[in-house]
Design brief:
Family: Belongs to the prokaryotic sulfate-binding protein family.
CATH topology of the largest domain: D-Maltodextrin-Binding Protein, domain 2
Subcellular location: Periplasm
Distance between the termini: 86 Å
Structural class: alpha/beta
Pfam families: SBP_bac_11 (PF13531)
Largest sheet: 8 strands, mixed
Number of strands: 12
CATH architecture of the largest domain: 3-Layer(aba) Sandwich
Strand content: 15-25%
Radius of gyration: 22 Å
Number of helices: 16
InterPro entries: Thiosulph/SO4-bd
Keywords: Periplasm, Signal, Transport
Number of domains: 2
CATH superfamily of the largest domain: Periplasmic binding protein-like II
Shape: globular
Length: 335
């Protein structure tokens, strides 16, 4: 074999290897998500990988990254190469859309305004409910300490704030009365958590507070991590509907060539298998059949939509959570 032929052979081998490497890289996906959804996506990823292998005949890898929803949105905006985002508030996705990271019409890309599941806010209290906490009004009592996520850093905290505000309006109260209620409730907050998992750790590991306001799905997570019998779930008289929006990160998939895989990943969240997995993690499925099947887990609770009192989460963000907004005016730590 001549030197020229050897060179061609080596070059062809290297080119084939590079092509194979690129193909392998194209079949990996990063889902950047909020921290309370960690266990759900761990199970979902396994199901999707098996589904994709069965239907496409291709092996893929799915990685996940979890933290506070808003912190994750900022990380993706700053360059974290997520293929998809699966957050707990639409404002975090819209933030990326406004910066050209996801499609402007992201909410029309998938059913239910790109929200395959929902949740709601409830209370976790210590076993036996020693403070006899039953409804929102109890959270302003001087003997009750409340653990909640900072609404400026996490969707969990924003929904808790909006649910508390809306609970006053649902009973016929005015916005002024709702603002006073918020002021009193946050006076009982000894420390604002950074995200949902930080709030749970503060409540259970640091043993701070009498009640934790969090997503319904956190009940299952607490029981799995800390064991049953540590907390009781208290469903207040009314709460808020929390959408879990999803989107393809166009900036990343355009570079990696993973657009088809990213779409398949988010599409499958609407499948019966995925909806069943969501239900097992106490995340409310969109499927009425699956929801009915798990009626024992998803207790009936009157819920109001964000739009009823706040227009939209985008409007709520501007009025309540941006710097200088209502939260900054009403939250008075140490007073």
């Amino acid at each position: 074999m001549t030197t020229r032929i050897k060179f061609k052979t080596v070059f062809a081998t290297l080119a084939l290897a590079a092509s194979g490497l690129a193909s392998a890289q194209a079949q990996s996906l990063l889902n950047v998500s909020y921290d309370v959804a960690r266990e759900f996506y761990k199970d979902y990823n396994q199901a999707f990988i098996a589904h994709y292998k069965k239907t496409k005949g291709v092996d893929i890898k799915v990685d996940q990254a979890h933290a506070g929803s808003s912190a994750q949105a900022r990380a993706v905006n700053d360059g974290l190469a997520a293929d998809v985002v699966t957050f707990n508030t639409t404002t975090d996705v819209q933030f990326l859309a406004d910066n050209g990271v996801v499609a402007k019409d992201w909410a029309q890309k998938f059913p239910h305004e790109a929200s395959p599941t929902t949740s709601t806010m409830l209370f976790l209290v210590r076993h036996g409910n020693p403070k006899n906490i039953k409804d929102w009004a109890d959270l302003t009592r001087p003997d009750v300490k409340v653990i909640v996520v900072n609404p400026k850093t996490g969707g969990n905290g924003r929904y808790a704030y909006l649910a508390a505000w809306g609970s006053v309006r649902e009973k016929g109260g005015s916005d002024a009365q709702a603002a006073e209620f918020i002021t009193q409730m946050y006076k009982n907050v000894p420390v604002l958590a950074k995200g949902g998992r930080d709030a749970t750790a503060t409540f259970l590991q640091r043993n701070i507070g009498d009640v934790l306001i969090t997503f319904e799905s956190e009940v299952v997570s607490v029981e799995r991590e800390f064991g049953k019998g540590k907390v009781d779930a208290v469903y207040p008289s009314v709460s808020i509907t929390a959408k879990n929006p999803v989107a393809i990160v166009e900036r990343t998939v355009a570079k990696k060539g993973t657009g088809e895989l990213a779409k398949a990943y988010l599409d499958y969240l609407y499948s019966d298998e995925a909806q069943e997995i969501a239900a097992r993690h106490a995340i409310r499925p969109r499927s009425e059949a699956v929801l009915k099947k798990h009626a024992d887990l998803f207790k009936p609770i009157p819920q109001f939509a964000v739009a009823k009192y706040f227009g939209s989460l985008v409007e709520a963000q501007k009025v309540h959570f941006n710097d200088g907004g209502q939260f900054d005016k009403l939250y008075q730590p140490g007073k």
